């Protein structure tokens, strides 16, 4: 079950057997594979009307710093240059009507699925974050406030919680900027610890899209940019989701 | 508050101003700084008698694969070559009587602190894992079973959840093998997705200890080693914890 789809594609890419040979990807037609416009991807990802709970909205746990920067970016969305991304409980809700490429289907059951960065639903205890995306400049900003359930060294956020936040922000950016679907690599250089409860601002930029891969960079720092928490890079594999109805494919 | 201790040391190291100049680390005396034996570190970390709850024990959510491999490693602990590490709710409990180096003190309050990889206490829903450590060979094995709250792509573990699990296993290994205290870098190359509920086995090895840094590698794969999920490397900074009583320092 696992040895098709992403695995085969990713393996080929990893082993550099497929630098520029799209014929080895039988399910993808290079000319049309990544033809979805950012507009249509955003429309799919950010439904205007939905009953789904959006977890990327202010709550009582947000610090004044987090809240005021959120308001600043919300103001910027009015011009249309920036978009506030909704954040549902599971990626299943973000891609309703679509599914992973053929072969990438895990056993399904009636579990209570949650996207990792929304695994803790107690306000302020775990991940508090909101992502803003700028389609024309292919960049994102994530406002991240780690709670006490994300602890590593006493009083500070776990390095892994920041790495996961970076991966998640890369993931959403990669998808909207060019159908980036799976992380191929994530490299993080940690500079300073983030005190629990304080605000880290993650600036993500798509650096290039080449050979079916999106290359991104991230810097996480304090709002005043005086303290760099970490820098990272991420590479994502472009793959198209399939429509749910195309079961026979 | 944040611009001392780890930050200064890490910054100097990052900027390569301090390749081999221990005099720039006034609080550390190179000759004695990392003199704690692995035995004494293990004794500190794994109290023989404690009332603290150990989360690294089998529960009803563990798969037969996870359970049988756990039993195999538990058997190996009898020879003394392998040690099963306990896993408490917070790192605060692992380092009782000690604190982070001077200057690295975050605002403290009466919050419900949890180490990130124990943030979800519902059995089977989040992180299920146990780490075994081999002191003489400076290596570890982590048995990791991601639950449905760790989802990324529908049905599969979030890449960030695996990155965090790697960081956490590196962290415990680095501390016990040589007082590695803070992640300086974490590089992950993802190969295949981990289906939620299945077992990933992480093999960690300390590759070298040099210039106050521990270099480690990790491979995460299925139990039968037929599927590699990811490979990673991690670099940790060696720093000594301070005794709680030495407030005046």
TrEMBL record, chains A, B:
Catalysed reaction, written as an equation:
hexadecanoyl-CoA + H2O = hexadecanoate + CoA + H(+); (9Z)-octadecenoyl-CoA + H2O = (9Z)-octadecenoate + CoA + H(+); (5Z,8Z,11Z,14Z)-eicosatetraenoyl-CoA + H2O = (5Z,8Z,11Z,14Z)-eicosatetraenoate + CoA + H(+); tetradecanoyl-CoA + H2O = tetradecanoate + CoA + H(+)
Whether DNA repair counts among this entry's keywords is: no
Q: What is the first-listed, main subcellular location in coarse terms?
A: mitochondrion
InterPro entries recorded: HotDog_dom_sf (IPR029069), Thioestr_dom (IPR006683)
Q: Which domain of life is it from?
A: Eukaryota
In terms of Gene3D superfamilies, this protein maps to: Hotdog Thioesterase
* GO MF annotation: an example: long-chain fatty acyl-CoA hydrolase activity
- The record's EC number reads 3.1.2.2
Tell me, what is an example of a GO biological process annotation in this record? cardiolipin acyl-chain remodeling
Q: Where in the cell is it found?
A: Mitochondrion
Keyword Transmembrane helix set for record: no
* Alphabetically ordered keywords of this record: Fatty acid metabolism, Hydrolase, Lipid metabolism, Mitochondrion
Q: Which SUPFAM superfamilies match?
A: Thioesterase/thiol ester dehydrase-isomerase
Q: Which Pfam families match?
A: 4HBT
Q: Which GO terms describe its cellular component?
A: mitochondrial matrix
Q: Where is the Thioesterase domain?
A: 155-226
Belongs to which family? Belongs to the THEM4/THEM5 thioesterase family.
Q: What is this protein called?
A: palmitoyl-CoA hydrolase
Q: What is the species listed in this Swiss-Prot or TrEMBL entry?
A: Neotoma lepida (Desert woodrat)
Q: What is the lineage of its organism?
A: Eukaryota, Metazoa, Chordata, Craniata, Vertebrata
């Amino acid at each position: 079950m696992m040895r098709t789809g992403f695995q085969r594609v990713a393996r080929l890419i990893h082993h550099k057997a497929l630098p520029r040979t799209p014929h080895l990807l039988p399910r993808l037609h290079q000319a049309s594979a990544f033809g979805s416009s950012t507009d249509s991807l955003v429309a799919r990802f950010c439904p205007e009307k939905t009953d789904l709970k959006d977890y990327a909205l202010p709550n009582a746990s947000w610090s004044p710093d987090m809240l005021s920067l959120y308001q600043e970016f919300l103001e910027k969305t009015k011009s249309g240059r920036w978009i506030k991304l909704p954040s549902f409980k599971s990626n299943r809700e973000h891609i309703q009507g679509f599914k992973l490429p053929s072969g990438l289907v895990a056993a399904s059951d009636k579990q209570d699925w949650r996207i990792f960065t929304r695994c803790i639903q107690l306000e302020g205890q775990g991940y508090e974050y909101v992502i803003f995306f700028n389609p024309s400049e292919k960049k994102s900003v994530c406002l991240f406030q780690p709670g006490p359930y994300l602890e590593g060294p006493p009083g500070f956020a776990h390095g892994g919680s920041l790495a996961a936040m970076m991966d998640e922000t890369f993931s959403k950016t990669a998808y909207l900027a060019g159908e980036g679907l799976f992380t191929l690599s994530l490299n993080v250089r940690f500079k300073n610890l983030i005190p629990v409860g304080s605000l880290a601002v993650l600036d993500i930029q798509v650096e290039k899209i080449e050979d079916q891969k999106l290359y991104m960079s991230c810097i996480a720092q304090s709002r005043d940019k005086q303290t760099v928490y970490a820098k990272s890079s991420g590479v994502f594999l472009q793959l198209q989701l399939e429509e749910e109805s195309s079961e026979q494919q």
